[in-house]
Amino acid sequence: MGNFHTENLGKILGGDALFKDLEYQRKMLRCLSENWTQIVGKLAPQIRLEFIRGKVLVIATENPLWMSEIRYYKADILTKINTLLTPLTGQKQTLTDLRVMIEPPSPTLPTQSPPRPTPKTLQEAIQWENQDRKNRGERLCSRCHTVYTASSICVFCRSGVK
Ligand SMILES: [Zn+2]
What we know:
The protein is of the alpha+beta class. 47% of the residues lie in helices and 14% in strands.
């Protein structure tokens, strides 16, 4: 297809092994999302799961006040997360780090996209994701020009996780 955005995003996200990775990460994020209250307790409504990259989980909060709280409990949170993920990944320490970003609330985010079958290829997964984001009125990241985002810079560029 030679889709410019898709190819570039593939590079940014890590190349060939990416699609398998995306599926895997989606499963891990779903597992964490289902157990989020159990993992972070009273902080659950304040923290959003963003993405997993390698062994790093990136989460976001709207209020800077929560950052120190989250950091204080970081080791504890990671232990709980790894315990939950072990049956899924077969690893004792699936994730080794937790990064917190400050993210303003996004008024467009809660829009539910229609249910879709599991994408068959990375390109499909990215195209669908991009389409959803376009439909929400998001724009291409001004830094990497490949990821749609509600802010001017996408979550990957903002997080600094490479
Ligand atoms: Zn970007």
